[in-house]
Structures are given as structure tokens and as C-alpha cells.
Amino acid sequence: MLDFINARFPVRLVPLLLVCVLCLLSAATALAAGVGWVWFVLSLLLLVRGVYDLRQTRHAVLRNYPLIGHFRFMLEFVRPEIRQYFLESDMEAQPFSRAQRSLVYQRAKKESDKRPFGTQLDVHAQGYEWVNHSLAPTLLATHDFRITIGPDCAQPYSASVFNISAMSFGALSANAILALNQGAKRGGFAHDTGEGSISQHHRVHGGDLIWEVASGYFGCRDEQGRFDADKFAAQAQDPQVKMIELKLSQGAKPGHGGMLPGPKVTAEIAAARGVPEGVDCISPATHSAFSTPVEMLQFIARLRELSGGKPTGFKFCVGHPWEWFAIVKAMLQTNITPDFIVVDGAEGGTGAAPLEFTNHVGAPLQEGLLLVHHTLRGAGLRQRIRIGAAGKVVSAFDVARLMALGADWCNSARGFMFALGCIQAQHCNTGHCPTGVATQDPVRQQALVVPDKAERVYNFHQQTLEALKELVQAVGLQHPGQFTPHHIVRRMEDDTVKSLAQLILVQVQEGCLRNGSLDDLPQIYRTHWPVASADTFAPKW
After folding, report:
1. Residue 419 lies in a domain
2. What's the whole-model pTM score?
């Protein structure tokens, strides 16, 4: 019954309707009996406020929840302890802290992010980290830090060091995709399509796209769900597509497939993915186009050729080390290398996944990034392959820290979702997102006003890179790519401090996996490198 009513008159607008009825009744009473003018004035003021809420573009919550949405903002002004009790009591359901979300909101709105009274963190707490500064700071002319990906490709890409991570149309609303891509276009940074392929909404503003091709081959599949080379080439050669990313796994649910239920497969989603409308859309857990490391690299080479020579790589969350080592051995055997690898940390998010997968499957970003970076060094391949990193990247310090550990650039998903207005309502999988970010409800997503939110996406990117520039200058460097583990320091449990260089257990010298003995390498190489084979993902125990 509630769904029936909501389809004709959204329940969330009932308070505004009641105020309207109260206004009419009080007006009639005042005119007939000469009393009740106070109620008429109060209800009229509330009605005007509610109508204004519906028409304003600054707050998506108020556009979807006129009048009652103000209660959320009232909580923002009470004491932090009370605010934390109401908004963050379930820490497992609130993976980002209030401070992190506030930082994004302020930068997206181009408000001051400066704080009085010094650090808000306990500098004596175990795990506290900081970056050492220089007595000879540099002065940089720009914060537009870039790297070249695929320098030997026919169409190399000059990428920003901070980009939008993979989020599909279908998981996000049309208006969210439009705003993200418009912001990316204005700021000159990349927008990863996610595995849902390239929709009509990705094309409206012409922002740079990284096309993610996953196991469902959405946008480039035949009727049986197999890879279709002709369909792939037709889309990949579009000038708006700058790079091709083969998705092996994602940090939020590595090793797990997915399904978009038929009722959620709208005509727009079906058109973008190349699947039947109204039919369950399956994302298999494995690829059908290859089954061995060598075949995988040959497939990557084929994608690069079909795209017209655009940088082509893969994304994965590190799992069994012997599988990663098998891929590296296949690179050495075939001399085929991806142009880039995106390491997705297990702390990455998704609209819906089993709790065990979000909490206990896959390597965290730091450990995965270090293993990938050092293995490529040991194989003598690091200079040929760029590395991206994704997983709870929000601040400039996050970017600096990950680049110190081996990343060439960073991607952020939830950071840009916050810039769109996401409040972590945890309704991504229900279609009832209160801000219009993660819903296909045509009425709810109208709350997300594209020009306004595109400006915030642009601001968040620019302000974060401006903060990164200030960090680079303070450390005395010229580019964030010059950060090393020696620059980042951590307080230990016994109150001692150590640089990340002292804490990194994986220490691999350039080319040692090709030329040297394994005896001097960490245990993970001594145990798993010998059993890895380029011909299979399975270990040869």
C-alpha cells in the first residue's frame, strides 16, 4: 500500500501537503470567524519555506525532503558529541569519519578548510602519521600535477594524479554521472565509467573517460555475453575514451560476481550495457575471454590494438600472491606488459556486497600496493608500467602517502560522491537515496542539480590538488611523484617513531627477480614465486 501511495504522491512530501492543508483551513477559519490568523501566518510561512526547499539547488536533501530535511541540518549545529551520537553511532555503517566528510564538503563548496587551535588529532596516539617538512621549501607555479600513461602507445594520455574512481551508471543516477563528467571536463581529469560501460550521460559533457571492461563485457558483448571485438572497437576508438581498464576484481567484493535484478534494468541501463531490458543483468566472477596469465596479457594487447593504441591496463585487488606473480612471469615470458595497473584496496566501497566480503576478503590498499610496486621493481618492469591506487582516498595527505608507497596516481570514489552531496544514508541498494546520487528513481534524482554539483566536483578536485601542492612545497619537492617512504613518519605502539621506509617489510632491488637468488628476499617471494607459472593461475606446489 505504501508503494502504491508513494508512486502517486511521494510519502516524503506528506509534511508539505499537511502544511498546505493547515494553511487553507486556518485561512478559512480566519475569514469566517475572525480568529486563527496566527496559525494562518505560521502555516503560510512554512508553506513558502517548503516550496523554496523544493526549488532551491544547493541542498539535495531539502529538494527531496522539504521542511523535514531541516532537522538533519539542525543536528550539524549541536555539540560534536551529540552529533556523533546521532549520525555516527554505528561506526561499521559509517566508514568515513565526520571530519573526512566535512573536509570534502568544504572543499566542494569552496569554503575555508582552515582550523583554529592546532591539530585535531592526538599526535601521541599509536598510528599517528605525519610528513616531514623541509627548511628549504619550494615554490611551484601550478597544482596541475600530471603523469603520462602509455608513453609508447599511439595515443598516450596525460593524466591528473587525482581522478574519479570506477562507479557505474546504474549504481549512480543519471544526474550523478552528468555532474561527475561535467566536473571532470572542466578540471581536465579522468572519469572511470565503472563496469556498467559508457552511457549516454557520460557523453553529454565530453569529459575524459577511462572505460572499464569487466567480466560481463557490458557495452562490448554479444547475445551470449561473450566479448565482441567489433562492438568494443566502435566505442573504444571514440576520442572521449582515453584509456581502457580491464577489471579483474574490485576491492569491495573481490572474487564475487554480481547481479542487477531485472526490475532495476531500465531502458537506459540496458542500452548502455547491451543487455535485455527488465532481465537480470549478471556480472560473472570470472572472465570468459581468457583463462591463463598469458592469455590475459594477449587479451590486453588485443584491446590496445582494437582501441587504436590507447593505454590499456587492468585493475585488481591483490589476492593470492602466486596469481599476481604468475601475471608478472607471463609479462617476462611474452614481453607483453600493460600500460598501467590499478590496485584497488579491500577498503574500497560498493552499493551492496556481503558483509564478509567487505570486511574480510582481499588485501588492504597499502599491502597490495607495496607488493605490486616491489614485484614490478624486482622483475625490472616498473619503469614500463604506471600504477594507480584506489581505496578511501579523500585528502591530499592520502594522495601523498600512497604516492610515497609507489603509486603514480590516485582514484577516489566516495570523495567525489561526497562532493555530489552523498550523506552516507546507506540506502544505495534500495533506490531510496535521499540526495539523488545512488538511485534510478526519476523524481529523487531530480534533487541533484547537475550544474551546481558539477561545480562542487570541480572544486573538490582543484582544492585537493591545491592542498597537495602546498604539501609538496613544504617538503621541498617539485612533484608529488618525488614523495618516498622516507618522508612519511608513524608513531609506534611503544611511543617510538619510524619512517615508512623502516616499516616496509617488502624490500626488493631492481631486477633481482630476474637475475638474483631468492634467498635474500622476503618470505612471500621465497614461498610463492617458485610455484607461480605464466601458464596457469593455479600454484604448482
Report:
1. yes
2. 0.85
